[in-house]
Amino acid sequence: MHIVFWGEEDGCGMTSSMIAIASVCAHAWNRKTILMQGRNQQGDLADKLETDRFAHLVREAGPNGGLLDGLDKLLWQAKSRKLGEADIKDCMVPVIKGRMYYLPQAAYRKPRVYTQSLNDGMWRVIRQAEQLCDLTFVDCGSGMDAMSAFILERADLVVMNLSQERQNLDAYFQKRHAFRGRVIYLINRYQQESMYNRQKINQLYRVEEESLAVIPHNPIFRHASDRGKAERFVRRHIRHTALENQTYFMDELTRAASMIVNAAGDGQEVL
Predict the structure, then answer these.
(1) pTM score, whole prediction
(2) CA gap 71, 154 in Å, rounded
(3) Alpha-carbon distances, residue 60 vs 46, 76, 88, 90, 183 (angstroms)
(4) What is the DSSP string of the chain?
(5) d(CA 175, CA 173)
(6) Percentage of residues in the chain with pLDDT exceeding 70?
(7) For all residues of the chain together, what is the average pLDDT?
(8) Which residues lie below 8 Å from residue 220, measured CB to CB, with a gap of 6+?
């Protein structure tokens, strides 16, 4: 199953939330997960996963004698020859050995045109990654480009990331996108005290309760994520007790992860 994270706004905490949800899947339910970003993204997974992007990037001579890094190498292989599971494994960087990996990529270089061959290459990488894991998470950011549209059309589940501001909620729901498959709406940095809390959004925009997830505002988690310790934060608090001050955050994060995994429909429901 592959799950695509997407939103209309930059800087809403989408990548951090995707990592946190994947960490719950790995630590709570032993799901093997591969994280990746669309080639239209900045490629900041290494920064948020406490790994050295340069130490782990796979370097290999390109077709013109240049160097290809991580995802670029896979896209070139998908275009020039058969892409297999071994190629994906060569580029997978372990975050939790046996349970959580990511595919690194080099600095973003916006192409002049998203060619069909590039789109097809991304799709082949995603499909091969699916063969190696239970869940494949793809961060498409706020991309409005052809590649994002291509990936979104083929997603088993779209996680639509929203902010809690009224104008942004109105702007989205007035022209609500019609995705092919299931959609989970995810509010990052959620504040229950806001006038537009979960109950109000359910009522005002007619969003079904089982389709709206939240990850509470948590400066401690955001600080940890900015330092590359998002997965470590989840690992530390996943077995939280009622006396911990992270109980509310972890309960809602786990609930959001459960909603996403169950909506993707991989046949193994989680609580």
Answers:
(1) 0.89
(2) 19
(3) 19, 11, 14, 11, 38
(4) -EEEEEESSSSSSHHHHHHHHHHHHHHHH---EEEEE-TTS---HHHHTT--HHHH--EEE-TTS-EEEBHHHHHHHHHHS---HHHHHHH-EEEETTTEEE--B-S----SS--HHHHHHHHHHHHHHHHTSSEEEEE-TT--SHHHHHHHHT-SEEEEEE-S-HHHHHHHHTT----SSEEEEEEEEE-TTSTT-HHHHHHHHT--GGGEEEEE--HHHHHHHHTT-HHHHHHHHTT--TTSTTHHHHHHHHHHHHHHHHHHT-S----
(5) 5
(6) 82
(7) 84
(8) 233, 246
- Amino acid at residue number 51: T
**CA 71/CA 92 separation, integer angstroms:** 10
Tell me the C-alpha distance between 92 and 101, whole Å. Answer: 6
Please choose, from the candidates 15, 25, 11, 4, the residue with its C-alpha nearest in 3D space to the C-alpha of residue 256: 25
Q: How far apart are CA 185 and CA 133, in angstroms?
A: 24
Q: How far apart are CA 195 and CA 45, in angstroms?
A: 33
% of the chain surpassing 90 pLDDT: 44
pLDDT number for residue 55: 47
Q: Is 188 exposed, middle or buried (0-12, 13-18, 19+ CB in 10 A)?
A: buried
Contact 197, 205 (CB under 8 A): no
Question: What's the distance, CA 238 to chain centroid?
Answer: 19
d(CA 174, CA 59): 45
The segment with the largest mean pLDDT, out of 35-49, 117-131, 207-221, 228-242, is 207-221
Residue given tokens 């080639």 in the structure block: 39
| 8 Å CB contact between 179 and 206 | no
Residue with tokens 């052809």: 146
The token pair at 150 is 């291509």
